[in-house]
Structures are given as C-alpha cells and as structure tokens.
Amino acid sequence: MRGVSDPSLNPPSRRETRIAAARTRRRRLTIPLLVIALLLAGGGVGAAMLLSHTSTSEAKSAGRGNGAMPTTAPTTRAPETTTSTTQAPGPGFVAGKVTAIGDSVMMDYQQALTEGIPGIDVQAGVSRQWGQGEQMLAGLKAANQLGATVIVGLSTNGPITTADMDQMMVTLAGASKVVLVNVHVDQPWQDPNNAVIAAAGQRYPTVVIVDWNALANEHPEWFGSDGTHLLINGTAAHALAAAVIAKAR
User: Cα–Cα distance between 168 and 99 in angstroms, integer?
Assistant: First the structure.
C-alpha cells in the first residue's frame, strides 16, 4: 500500500550505523563517570543506587535481547522455632522441690531415693494409711512447703477407692507432676488398689505411674516371707528407687 514504508527496504546507511554506535558508547561511559563523580563528592549512597538501577536495567535489556526471562533468587526464611515452657506450680507448691509421702515400703528404698534426688523431702512411716498421707500433703501445702513434684507411695496397708484418689488429687491440684507408685502386697486389695491408681494416670494429666507390682512380679527373689518389704538399701530397693526417680524427672 502507498504511504507505508517497509524498513527492510531502506536499510540504515553506514553513516547512520556509526552514529548509533557512538551514541551507545557515550551512554555507557556517562554512567561510570557519573558514579565516580558521586563518589568523589561523598555521594556513595546515590552512586550505589545508580549502579543498582543500571544493573537491573541492563539485566532486563539482556533478557529482552536473548528471549530469556529474568530470574529472581529464592528468598530463604529462617525456620520458626517453638519454645515449650513448663507451667509454674500453683500456690502452696515449691518450684524445683520434690516431696515423697509413703508407707513402710518407701522406708525400705528411702536412702536410694535421697541419693538419686538431692534435696528431696521424704516422709515415710510404718502402717501409714492413704487418708493419713493425704492429710500430710494438705498440711505441707497449707504451709507452702510442698514440692511441685509429689511422689505418693501409699495403699500397701488397706483398700482405696476412686473417691479417695479424687480427694488426694484435689489436694494436689496445682502440682507440676504427681508420681503414683502402685503396690505389691499379698492382700486382696492389691489389684483393686492398683486399678484405681492406673485409672488416675488416665484421668489426670499431671499423674504418672510407677508399675512397681509388674517389676516385683519379675523378681520374686527380692522379697522375704511377707512378699512385700525389701531389704533396706538392697538390690530391690535400688531398683524401685530408680524407677521412681526416672518418672519424677
């Protein structure tokens, strides 16, 4: 059609090509000279910005020239960290302290327990009943002397019920951890008591169980004629103390 010129039919002359090349060289020289001038004048930030802008422009131009898409470096994020914290004990409980209340079986392993947990307050007594132990714990709590970790080794000397356990746990509400040691005793209340203790481990999140009865059944040689008490500070006493200490940590 008339009035429309095709550039391919009118290629640039050698003179026009030389002029275009000269202009390109002048542009390339102008930017470094300007950067040097800015640096000499104390304009380091401005020079850096200019260089950054120039590099970006050249990269874009190069991408357009060769058909390649500009690439962006992947952003690396620092991994998020989660810090878990232990809830502070409630009123009446002493953080970092361990209190153990038990009957005569606890007396058999008391020495090994104190060696394994320095500073532990062990209060064990002959023929102690569950209710007596609960009263002792309530008194210590009222006096702000009860450890945040409580070890309970009772129920050797008589039956306990779910109501007894619930009353104990009302007293121990606010403790960081409650370690319940079940019993090994040749009496009809052994299994029912251990069932109450096992159920507490499912019902109360702060409760952990030491299955002393299962460990004792594997070692009948540990016991004397009554099948309940241990040689004081003997092999069985150290084994029971080690199991309790592992749960108390």
Answer: 14
